[in-house]
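Thanks for the sequence, V.! I ran Riboflavin synthase right away. Repeating your input here for the record:
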Amino acid sequence: MFTGIVETVGKILDISASGHNLSFWLEADITRELKVDQSMSHDGICLTVEAINESRYQVTAIEETIRKSNISEWQIGKTVNLERCMTLGGRLDGHIVQGHVDATGTCLSVTPENGSYLYRFSFPKPFNHLIIEKGSIAVSGTSLTCFDVGDGVFSVAIIPYTYQHTSISQIKPGDLVNLEFDVIGKYIARMQAFTVATKH
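Predicted structure:
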């Protein structure tokens, strides 16, 4: 479980394929604090630390993760947002994020706003019911508030700190991002659908 508050960023050093899986070696300033079997969010994707070698560590994505996220487009040198799982008793500064990517979205535009940045994204319309005005959404693992929500589109405003300390600054029009919709909204939508179905 995560909060969507990016802790630091990591750099991809190596990528290898094995069957349908993709393995990545990354370098990060928190590597020496990690342990094998630890869950970490990588641009919103929950991956397990498999090996550690000084300042580098390895994770692997399986076919399901590759199919639902943008991880197949990752390249050596790419910077990704990192967050270790939350601890009980800590502050929930963002929102509840599971690290389970629901879909990818496409960046439509990036507009500087005199110090902040306005990002516009499109997403698959079947997920329309899971996003609301001023609701929470995780974009590449970053907890953000969406607004100007339309049919398969939404906007987010990025403050200077987030722009400078996450991989958001690398996103440009046409890029795919990982999206995770609010888990509470997903449960509510599921319960409503179940209630309607049982009435018929």
